[in-house]
Design a protein that fits this description.
7-stranded mixed sheet, disordered N terminus, 5-stranded mixed sheet, alpha/beta, about 475 residues
């Protein structure tokens, strides 16, 4: 056993040394060369412009970009964190930094033997943006240098994982490596993706063409409407010109902010463009930057989006919750984000249905968000507001939610565009989510809503999204909140 530990420590040191050397060479942007140690005498020097750290999961070869790997380590005795996802083993103190530890095998639903607290795990310490994670794998192999052009697109049959997490496949010395897209796994965006999007935005800004006459007509209509207004203090509602060509708006929003214009939001987009044309003036309606797209979408987001709910908004949601005498209220909250919306909804449901067992399935594709949501602390100002009956105090005097309320929520990593095994639901709460899915996924999700919703259930979307005209839905408006029933 002692000899084995010495060998393990030697392996870790050797790979960390290789990482340090390769990171320095790669960051210098000067192409290097690498000889395969096995076939050193027989192979010619190859141009290396991409390096990856290879490892195995369930006997299959995988790899990730070396630029995302800080180091490798062997560790155990992770500190367990309650109410986290099954693949989160806990947290670990890495030289003073507390980092979450994710078992990549469990994340990909690969069977793992029962482990003891004393077992040491092979870990890749990776950095995604400003976040650091420990990723547990079976065996860490070596650093491999390749030509980036040799990376091939993935085939749906490769690997046991979702193809969207695969960046590509590459063959090196008769071994086929599945190159994982670590940024997608952790819900982040690579610098390369950002640069590519910026290039697309610039091209679109140069090439976008709109119907200037239609825009001018829309602006003229707005001015005419303003002059006809009886009350000068009340701004006139922009006149929507149905003939305006919104192709460039649709393309720009999709490329810049993954916002898909569709029947679920098209009415809002048309109305917003009329206002946009009035604000910007003739020939200035094109989106030349992400800031323009953000400015266009700013009025789209619902009240208290991504933050704690005000009492006024909480009261408006409480009013539309249907009467229900069921012993269990099941809720689906896709796009839960950091969890503030989910906790707010849980408080209202606890108040509305005091005798029922509340079960909320909170889903998101941002792994960091769903991993941290169970640990979310509450600011004092929020804890002393309408949330007070559902708040508890930690040992360090910070505020958190009561165990009963936290246990009613299951935060899970899940892409709602994919199938799921959820039970039928009493409430589906999906604000400002559907518009940020591809058009095809939007239609599929609406069908999923219809299949998952009970006959007496309700769906709540964002304030500027609608299900009308997309199926057999009936809208019910109460103040600023609209509910949909089958």
């Amino acid at each position: 056993m002692a000899n084995e530990n010495i060998q393990n420590q030697t392996d870790v040191k050797n790979i960390n040394d290789a990482l340090a050397q390769n990171l320095g060479a790669y960051a210098s942007t000067v192409p290097g060369t690498e000889k395969n140690p096995v076939d050193e005498k027989n192979e010619k020097l190859a141009l290396i412009d991409y390096k990856m750290v290879t490892f195995s999961l369930a006997g299959k070869d995988y790899a990730i970009d070396i630029m995302k790997v800080k180091e490798i380590a062997k560790a155990g005795r992770f500190t367990y964190v309650p109410n986290t996802l099954p693949f989160v083993l806990g947290v670990y103190n890495l030289r003073g930094d507390i980092i979450p530890i994710v078992d990549l095998r469990l994340f990909f639903n690969i069977e793992v033997d029962a482990r003891l607290d004393t077992d040491l795990e092979n870990m890749l310490i990776v950095s995604i943006g400003d976040q650091t994670f420990g990723i547990v794998v079976d065996v860490i192999d070596k650093v491999v240098g390749i030509q980036k052009s040799s990376i091939q697109p993935p085939h749906p049959l490769f690997g046991d994982i979702n193809i969207k997490y695969i960046q590509g496949v590459v063959e090196v010395n008769n071994r086929l490596y599945i190159l994982l897209d670590i940024e997608r796994i952790f819900g982040s965006k690579t610098e390369a993706q950002a640069a590519e999007e910026e290039s697309v935005r610039k091209n679109m800004a140069r090439n976008a063409k709109i119907d200037v006459k239609a825009v001018s007509s829309a602006q003229t209509g707005v001015k005419a409407s303003s002059k006809a207004a009886d009350t000068p203090a009340a701004p006139a509602k922009p006149v929507v010109n149905e003939n305006v060509d919104l192709t460039f708006v649709k393309e720009s929003l999709e490329q810049m902010r993954k916002f898909s214009v569709s029947p679920f939001n098209e009415a809002w987009v048309k109305e917003r463009f009329a206002s946009w044309a009035k604000e910007r003036g003739k020939d200035k309606t094109q989106f030349t930057s992400v800031e323009d797209a953000d400015a266009f979408l700013k009025p789209f987001y619902s009240t208290c989006n991504g933050t704690w709910w005000t009492k006024e908004y909480a009261d408006s949601v409480y009013k539309v919750l249907p009467d229900n005498t069921a012993k269990q209220i099941t809720v689906w909250n896709p796009g839960c984000g950091k969890g503030m919306e989910t906790y707010s909804l849980a408080c209202l449901l606890t108040k509305k249905y005091p005798e029922a067992k509340i079960k909320i399935y909170a889903h998101d594709i941002d792994l960091l968000n769903v991993s941290n949501a169970p640990l979310l602390s509450i600011p004092a100002a929020v804890a002393n507001d309408w949330y007070a009956p559902y708040v508890a105090t930690k040992a360090n005097n910070d505020f958190t939610f009561s165990p009963e309320l936290k246990n009613s929520i299951m935060f899970e990593y899940h892409d709602c565009a994919n199938t799921n095994a959820l039970p039928v639901c009493d409430i589906i709460f999906a604000r400002d989510l559907i518009s940020f899915l591809p058009a095809g996924a939007q239609s599929s999700l609406a069908v999923d809503f219809e299949e998952k919703l009970k006959g007496n259930g309700i769906v709540i979307l964002g304030q500027n999204e609608t299900l009308e005209g997309t199926g057999k839905w009936t809208a019910h408006k109460d103040g600023s909140v609209v509910t949909y029933t089958k």
